[in-house]
Amino acid sequence: MSTIAPPPLRPGQRVALVATARKITAAEVDFAVQTLSGWGLEVVLGTSIGAASHQFAGTDDERRRDLQRQLDDSSVRAIICARGGYGTARLLDELDFSGFAASPKWVAGFSDITALNCHLLRLGYQSIHGVMPVLFGQAAGEAAVASLRAALGGAPMPCEALAHPLNRPGTAQGELVGGNLSLLHTLTGTRSQVDFTGRILFLEDLDEYLYHIDRMLLHLHRSGQLAGLAGLVVGHFSQMRDNLIPFGQSAYEIIDQYAQRYHFPVGYGFPIGHEPSNHAVVVGRQATLDVAATGSQLHW
């Protein structure tokens, strides 16, 4: 069954900013509000913006109520998660998506928001893995913000990567799935786990020990989740850590040792993840991955 794409976001429509994970102030999203307003959008700040409960943007119940309110409000045509951190997966099991199903809208974010992206895909809806408001005008590059705007507008831009020595050439077609490796690992065995079979998987991660990367990929391999992939897109693996006794492989080399056990095309170095060049991609949309000696491209 094909996935459902929410209607393209148009000038004059309302977009809500919510914090499903780590706390954030209104001042930290002010530049994003100005940017979105400059696109002709009406920006609504959820009650989770400015709320705090230890490191979270309010208690689980407060964050869930805010997200539920935006999911149910048919006048809100997109929900953009303000930042990542940790906590989105804690909200999922008690959310009601019946109002959302009656009037689907774009949901956007990355990193910890991978949990919500995957949950929506399990329900049959496309969403956006892209730069978040906390990074607008700071760590985010202009191209990343432009790609988010294009994806919200229903016309995601092709995503390209330079040639890489670990690439495995070939062409793959399938729905795009993936996001943060740590979250994909965490979702295994839950109601939010996505079947990768016949799909193009993309991966990124931040601030992990190299042996953690190996452990998570080993689990995906041993649990059979990599066996039916159509293709693999490898994005940023940023600020990786190592032990006093080195692990002996980079993140890309760790991924390669598992990818070599299969026969799907693999493209490394895509601008997806925790870097300024974070390119927005649509989770659940039919895509084509072309990997050649001259470089790679992911397009729709």
Automatic annotation (TrEMBL):
The active site is at S111 (nucleophile), E204 (charge relay system), H274 (charge relay system). Keywords: Carboxypeptidase, Hydrolase, Protease, Serine protease. GO terms for molecular function: carboxypeptidase activity; serine-type peptidase activity. Residues 173-289 form the LD-carboxypeptidase C-terminal domain. GO terms for biological process: proteolysis. Signal peptide: none annotated. It holds the Pfam family Peptidase_S66. InterPro entries: Carboxypeptidase_A_C_sf, Class_I_gatase-like, LdcA_N, Peptidase_S66_N, Peptidase_S66C, S66_fam. Residues 15-130 form the LD-carboxypeptidase N-terminal domain. Coiled coil: none annotated. Belongs to the peptidase S66 family. This is LD-carboxypeptidase. It comes from Hymenobacter polaris.
